[in-house]
Amino acid sequence: MPRAFPLRHYLLALCLLFPGAVFGQVAPLIANISARRMVSLDGQWQVIVDPYDTGSFDYHGRPLTNNNAFFKNYKPQSASELVEYDFDTSGYLNVPGDWNTQRESLLFYEGSVWYKRSFDFAAPPGKRLFVHFGAANYKAFVYLNGQEVGRHEGGFTPFDFEITEKLRERNNFLVVRVDSTRRSNEVPAVNTDWWNYGGITRPVELLILPESFIEDYSIQLERGSRHSRKNPRGRNRQDFQNRPSWPSRILLRCRCAAVVPGEP
Fold this sequence. Notes:
The chain has 264 residues and is mostly beta strands. The chain folds into two domains: 22-212, Jelly Rolls (Sandwich); 214-255, no CATH class.
């Protein structure tokens, strides 16, 4: 008999072979956002096309942290300062939407595009703020007011990040670098059979939530319960009245405000 290979070894091998699998969101996703209080950030976003990733890395390939990094949205203080990007004089793309069909010059483009959206927002007292993305293809790097708030990998899945401590009442700027580059160890691979659309392809919302809130929930049958043998597709009232009740349970996942020792 062949020796069993422990599950943890499979998981470790997957992480080593596909490091992108651990790239995405760490915090659990907030569910049912359509029932939450939110503000849409959809519309026209200013964009910079960056085929050489000059807004991310220096010529040695090291990540930029100075004012040359595009997410800083830095404005020169004098004519002698060399800053080679400016969102305010760049073009626009609609969000949600892919960039391939919005500009003829981007039809076959694969690489990085930087998006910027400016907005004011007076946060209500006692609330927590999250930015929620329906999807961005393929990798997304998210910054608010010059600080990174999170990263996500996956072109068809939603993600969100808390921005409560980084948001201000006026002159917020949300910057997102979306990278659609294909790689041999990712999805899609270099050889693929579907069009590799790029961009922020689904809505972007600002979520306003209480300090403690239900993050996710589900309802399921209790283990060991049996299905009713009555017609499960009955639609009239009599069908449901005659159907026996099924033991079930409700699972809630809550996200609570941090409690500081010594404070009420």
